[in-house]
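sorry for the late reply, my laptop died twice this morning and i had to redo everyting from scratch. anyway the thing you sent over, i finally got around to it. pasting the sequence first so we're on the same page, its 137 residues, then the predicted structure underneath. double check i copied it right bc i was rushing
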Amino acid sequence: MKVLIKGSSIFVLFIMVMSCATITSALPEKYNLDNELEAVDRIFTIKGPRWQQVDNQSVILRVNWNDYYLLVLRRPIDKRYSNPSLGFSRTISSITRGIDRVFVEPSESTTGFVIDKIYKLKGREQANEIKERLRED
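ok and here's the structure:
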């Protein structure tokens, strides 16, 4: 009987691990810009960032003077918050994809929105082009 319980426990554990490993981020196709833009894992030296919400799942971040980044969130921001205030929970000098989170106020969520992708943009013109394109879809 103990062997059966141990075997069942190992099987259940194996199934749980495999199910977690096969879960993927299901971002809409419009955010798959890997072939067009430079994907980065981290943004350094963030001083006085300025946010522009593109749509309910992406924002453009301007850091320093002329460095623009597209941040794609793992899940959409609830549509009932129009013109939310975006930011980080703490003052940081870098943002890391998959680790850092964007927080929205007002919001009932205390967990924030994980940054799934970061793309470096080539200046204001490209930022505006990407913003218009993502809003069209």
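The mean pLDDT is 78.
thats about all i looked at so far, will dig more tmrw
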